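Protocol step 4 of 6: structure prediction from sequence.
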Amino acid sequence: MDSQIRKIHHQLVNKEITCTDLVQERLDALKQNTNNTVNSLLDTSALDLAAKVDAKIANGDSIGLLEGIPFGIKDVYMVQGTYTTASSDLLKNYKSAYTATAIRKLLDAGAIPLVKENCDSFGHGSSSENTIFGAVKNAVNSNLVAGGSSGGSAVNVAKDYTVFSVGGDTGGSVRQPAGYNNVYGLKPTYGRISRFGLMAYASSTDCVGPIAKSIEDIRIVLNVMSGKDGKDQTTYASAEIPQNGILTSEDIKTVGYFKNFIETDAIDSQIKSDFLAAIEKIKAKGIQVKALDFFESETLVSTYYTLAMAETASNLSRLDGTNYGNRIEGDNLKDTYAVTRSENFSEETKRRIVGGNQLLSQGFSDEIYLKGLKLRDQISENFENDFKEVDIIISPVTPNTPPKIGESLKDPLAMYLSDAYTVGFSLGQLPTLTVPKGTATGLQITAAKNNDELVLKFANFLKDTI
């Protein structure tokens, strides 16, 4: 089974390479990269950790599977003592006082963080252009966007700067950039991995998600990060997914797809034809395929952004320069709050805060926000009914190919619509994986809640089918 993690582990154990050389090589590549993926390098600590791994191997001690494996961290995760900027002016000099649970578990397993990765500021965007560090450039074509908001994380994996990266997915922020850069990206079931230490964007859909070049590496990293956490009340205990558990797909009998995702003028003609060709290949393997009815993509996008903007307005209300952040003094306290937030937030973040505050204001909350909550319940109910009929739902990751850098900034609505095929699964809190197969931006595999293992099984099936 393909796995960079296992390959590197084997090389380290057999002394074919040293961990110090491995880490230094990746750090050098990150320093020289022209894709704008780096917010800050963790070079000193990375080399110190690498030296300790080399010492263990020299002493004949055994090392864990993740021990010495270099990885990247989207710059919205707390890592004690490191700059955690969220790619924003407001937090450009902020250093974390603690470490996120998901990252702590990886550190405890011996993985070595190399870099805090560029992303849309506070996760607000689908292109990784809304950042003070410059737009992240696509790994395949540097004239195109990398996708977002975890664009730097996806590009670093695609370019082999990191073996895997930890992104964050709210409405597609792991899956869409994974699709744009031809790598795997997983949004697990909501609550499988602790959100403690992840800067909150929309708390009801925020998920910690791994990005890697193989299904096996996704499985390994997912297992390490998963589990109940007393610091996040939405987490739950989950069984480890065994390697042999995802090697067969005999229990997958029926696959569904949403016909309104395909029977629309909004989808690129090539993505449509490639998706339908993939469906035929699945049918040829003896699996039944059903066309399902679902909400229109415009309804999904508007429901998601209604709730996400309301939640981000609430979550970011704490960032006013008083307790932390880049405070700008005004004529009085009220003016200080206003100028600090106006000057330090990106245009996209301000757009979402203003929209969210309006949605939550008197007169609008009943008319719009509460309707959004009801629609979310209806979407979840629709999924529950669908998964009584099918085992897996498959869909394109995006309706279109990546735009050129600069285009999304001119048309925010087009940027929101690029999430049309990802946000519904976020609202349903379902496990969903992007696989770099089938269409120019990949395919998306979804299963019912807590069926993350089934998603990985079908991904393995697709690897040999398409």
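Step 5 (inspection) to follow. The CA atoms of residues 66 and 220 lie 8 Å apart.
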